[in-house]
């Protein structure tokens, strides 16, 4: 579908960010107001945001929401306008002149930092960097990840931490059938990594990963699970008092740590050549350089003592020798345009139920901070879309807003039809390799594919 810039009889709505929040909100607004024109602006030539570039390639079931997004994009009153960025190609002021409602859903762009000495050493990276390499995010095609090390340390105990551990330790032949980049598969072939350690500041009751991700790790081919019993003994008696579904997760953690594994699991772990380790009640305090003075060689950890729901740092210090440290303690958004109201401390656009100011809204992680899984983003986007719909009650096309026709500085934009071309090219390129698709990695490659 090419651009549809004819005047609609209803309001003009701009959605800035073509990820899950943007598409879920669009779905609701387009259904409620078939007379409205909804334009989704996305800075990349391709849609879906973190569903394409964040969700792990071996979790294709999580990406099934794309079929819903496809249906929304193909509605007559919805346009996808790719390769156009807020703050670069147009301003918030431009949008507000042309649209009755502007919904910001451009997500998170930066890692939260650890704030420790040595964090700027080579090979101290954000987990997001590694995710971007194996998922083929434009800008990461020449990004080097050091797997020439025995041990990788991941600081953080959420699903992203588990994802990167799994994508480092999963056999190449298992990953090959998904849409992992060839560069990551080549990197894994020469990997020396034998151990990935996940470090958490608090105890087992406060891990953020979900039971599905934990179970996958305990069953990962060729990989042993290492938990430290002393970190789980203090909580074994309170598991039965927890509420589901938290109870199921903690139960699996405690049983894995304290009970003897079944014969099949024991044999698999005894023969495993690599391991993943959960090291809780530890806080990183310094990344230390090796002999070159430039690259990380060890990570110093302070041992923490539980104090209610929090912890107190002790004087006991431990060290882990490592050639790669990945921080995975959350993400934050950026102020894409100087006139976007922004809370720099929280890394969000301040809002009340998605309302920022008259006609301006935010949804998804830009408004809530990075939390939950895709269904949480969906619920938030639906709620905010409901407020957009409510506020548009009585608004017609008589407001004089030009919509897409008034956005005159984006002649280089891509369309939904262009995306479908790229998708077909990627799927065709993947077939000879037995892969779902071979992603076009650079914006230039995407634009050239459209032209040709």
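^ structure tokens above, recovered residues below v
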């Amino acid at each position: 579908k090419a651009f549809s810039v004819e005047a609609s009889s209803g309001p003009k709505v701009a959605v800035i960010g073509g990820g899950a929040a943007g598409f879920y909100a669009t779905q609701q607004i387009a259904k409620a107001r078939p007379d409205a024109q909804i334009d989704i602006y996305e800075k990349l030539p391709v849609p879906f945001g973190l569903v394409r570039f964040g969700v792990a390639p071996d979790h294709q079931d999580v990406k099934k929401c794309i079929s819903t997004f496809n249906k929304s994009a193909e509605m007559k009153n919805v346009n996808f306008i790719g390769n156009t960025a807020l703050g670069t190609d147009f301003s918030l002021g431009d949008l507000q002149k042309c649209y009755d409602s502007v919904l910001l859903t451009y997500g998170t762009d930066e890692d939260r930092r650890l704030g420790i000495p040595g964090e700027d050493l080579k090979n101290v990276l954000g987990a997001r960097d590694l995710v971007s390499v194996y998922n083929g995010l434009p800008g990461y095609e020449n990004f080097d990840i050091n797997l020439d090390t025995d041990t990788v340390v991941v600081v953080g105990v959420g699903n992203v931490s588990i994802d990167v551990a799994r994508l480092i330790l999963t056999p190449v032949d298992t990953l090959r059938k998904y849409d992992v980049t060839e560069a990551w598969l080549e990197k894994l072939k020469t990997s020396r990594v034998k151990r990935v350690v996940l470090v958490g500041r608090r105890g087992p009751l406060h891990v953020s990963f979900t039971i599905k991700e934990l179970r996958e790790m305990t069953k990962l081919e060729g990989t042993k699970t290492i938990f430290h019993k002393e970190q789980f003994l203090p909580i074994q008696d309170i598991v039965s008092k927890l509420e589901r579904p938290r109870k199921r997760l903690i139960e699996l953690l405690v049983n894995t740590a304290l009970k003897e594994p079944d014969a099949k699991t024991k044999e698999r772990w005894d023969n495993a050549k690599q391991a993943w380790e959960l090291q809780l009640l530890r806080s990183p305090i310094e990344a230390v350089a090796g002999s070159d003075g430039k690259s990380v060689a060890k990570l110093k950890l302070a041992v923490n003592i539980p104090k209610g729901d929090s912890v107190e740092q002790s004087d006991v210090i431990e060290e882990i020798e490592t050639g790669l440290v990945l921080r995975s303690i959350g993400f934050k958004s950026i102020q894409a345009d100087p006139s976007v109201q922004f809370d720099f401390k929280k890394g969000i656009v301040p809002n009340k139920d998605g309302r920022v100011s008259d006609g301006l809204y935010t949804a998804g992680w830009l408004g809530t901070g990075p939390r939950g899984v895709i269904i949480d983003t969906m619920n938030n986007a639906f709620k905010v879309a409901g407020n957009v719909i409510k506020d548009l009650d009585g608004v017609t096309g008589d407001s004089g807003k030009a919509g897409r026709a008034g956005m005159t500085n984006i002649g280089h934009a891509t369309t939904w039809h262009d995306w479908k071309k790229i998708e077909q090219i990627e799927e065709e390129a993947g077939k000879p390799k037995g892969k779902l698709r071979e992603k076009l990695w650079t914006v230039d490659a995407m634009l050239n594919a459209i032209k040709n």
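The CA atoms of residues 102 and 309 lie 40 Å apart.
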